[in-house]
């Protein structure tokens, strides 16, 4: 079951191994000295800890950790923003939050390239990129890097970035679609002009006939 809109969990693990196994995990003790406010009722393996990291986040969705300054970046769907959450004193609870980016319809997807200083976030139709240095600054110079994603059906997009490409997961229109034309993972090369999600086909070059 998904966490409530007002509570962003620091860590949560779902168990699908039967009722008896869940009971064992529910009673597993947290790691000694590393769980400030143990979340009662969390189903965990022994040695793991679940606690509330930040409250009053408006429809928290995608998360990514920025190792440069220790921020947890979260898409706040209720306000179409990306929040940076900071645990200032190391107690496992975020004391400071900063809205670092915003765009119309931001609802789920997020990715980060710390080497280039890029932050990505998405609406149902569009993926945006900002220049983002971390260190409690706001993102700047927003550009559109992917456009034209279908807006009917399931609206969230999951993003994953590597050195030069962005993977965008586009879900199905309904819970069960007749075919997979919509439900795809798109690979977009972003070291070039903005990309659309239409599929292109390349012809193989003709082989030259050898003389003799």
What does this structure look like?
This protein has 212 residues and is mainly β. 4% of the residues lie in helices and 35% in strands. It has one helix at residues 19-26, and strands at 7-9, 52-55, 60-66, 71-76, 81-86, 96-102, 110-113, 118-122, 127-131, 140-147, 157-161, 165-170, 184-189, 195-196. The chain has a 5-stranded mixed beta sheet, with no helix packed on it. A 4-stranded antiparallel beta sheet has the order 3-4-5-6, with no helix packed on it. The protein is globular, with a radius of gyration of 21 Å. Residues 1-33 and 197-205 have low confidence and may be disordered.
Radius of gyration: 21 Å
- Secondary-structure element sequence? EHEEEEEEEEEEEEE
What percent of residues are in strands? Answer: 25-35%
Rounded mean pLDDT is 77
Shape: globular
Low-confidence stretches: 1-33, 197-205
Give the proportion of residues in helices.
under 10%
Strand count:
14
Give the CA-CA distance, first to last residue. Answer: 70 Å
Question: What about the largest sheet?
Answer: 5 strands, mixed
- Total helices: the number is 1
Instruction: Please give the order of strands in the largest beta sheet.
Output: 7-8-9-10-14
The structure class reads mainly beta
């Amino acid at each position: 079951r998904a966490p409530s809109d007002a509570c962003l969990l620091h860590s949560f693990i779902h168990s699908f191994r039967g009722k008896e196994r869940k009971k064992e995990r529910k009673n597993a003790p947290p790691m000694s000295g590393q769980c400030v406010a143990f979340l009662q009722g969390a189903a965990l393996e022994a040695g793991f800890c679940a606690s509330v990291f930040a409250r009053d986040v408006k429809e928290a969705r995608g998360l990514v950790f920025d190792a440069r300054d220790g921020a947890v970046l979260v898409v706040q769907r209720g306000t179409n923003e990306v929040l940076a959450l900071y645990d200032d004193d190391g107690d496992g609870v975020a004391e400071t939050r900063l809205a670092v980016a915003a765009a119309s319809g931001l609802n789920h997807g997020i990715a980060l390239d710390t080497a280039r200083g890029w932050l990505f976030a998405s609406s149902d139709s569009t993926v945006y990129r900002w220049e983002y240095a971390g260190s409690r600054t706001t993102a700047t110079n927003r550009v559109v890097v992917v456009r034209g994603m279908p807006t009917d059906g399931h609206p969230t997009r999951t993003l994953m970035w590597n050195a030069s490409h962005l993977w965008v997961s586009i879900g199905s229109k309904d819970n069960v679609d007749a075919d997979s034309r919509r439900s795809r993972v798109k690979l977009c090369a972003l070291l070039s002009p903005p990309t659309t999600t239409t599929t292109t086909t390349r012809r193989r070059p003709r082989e030259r006939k050898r003389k003799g």
